[in-house]
Design brief:
32% of the residues lie in helices and 14% in strands. By secondary structure, it is α+β, with helices and mostly antiparallel strands. Belongs to the succinate dehydrogenase/fumarate reductase iron-sulfur protein family.
Length: 252
Amino acid sequence: MSTATLDKVEAESAASPYITVTFRIRRFNPEVSDEAMWQDFEVEIDPKERVLDGLHKIKWELDGTLTFRRSCAHGICGSDAMRINGKNRLACKTLIKDINPAKPITVEPIKGLTVLKDLVVDMEPFFQAYRDVMPFLITKGNEPTRERLQSAEDRERFDDTTKCILCAACTSSCPVFWNDGQYFGPAAIVNAHRFIFDSRDEAGEQRLEILNDKDGVWRCRTTFNCTDACPRGIEVTKAIQEVKRALITRRF
């Protein structure tokens, strides 16, 4: 190799954006042990990449047994919600450079749901609460012969809560949910809100009665953890307060 070529390689190496980052991951495999453990991995990565990219490097190049959920990798499916440096986030939306890569990046499963393996939790209780609030349009009478029209103002009334991607980041950040898995949780209430305030829907009263249960909306302690955790920027606490107000006044 010529001197000029060597100089070029060295220059490109010196300009490399890659840094060494330590990922400290909480591992759990019920087939091996009943106890979880922390395991460190050192990864060469561009700080402009995402935590999800780091997890991919670990799984594909260092340890194929690492288990986590992900699908679209673009903040739409919500499947890769996890606790990163102590906060609920989507791994696909969290940049390495935004969480101080000079220190170990801790990654663990979201709280309040049973851990199945590594970063994968049992989502069934979460989805059952979602199903219980009837998250679909309910109307009476015959099938309509034309589209159910709605004004822009009526649509705007519940626009914020249509953004939910069911990632469980809000629900699994709630201290009430951590201590009582029977609580419906913020995500279920947000999805009830989306239909309670829909002018085309006719089951608002039913949903309000469901949320008037002892494990319903009144369990909220307004800590704002859910709002802070939402990757879509939904004003979760505000939506919960609006449902409470609707229960008191029975006005949608």
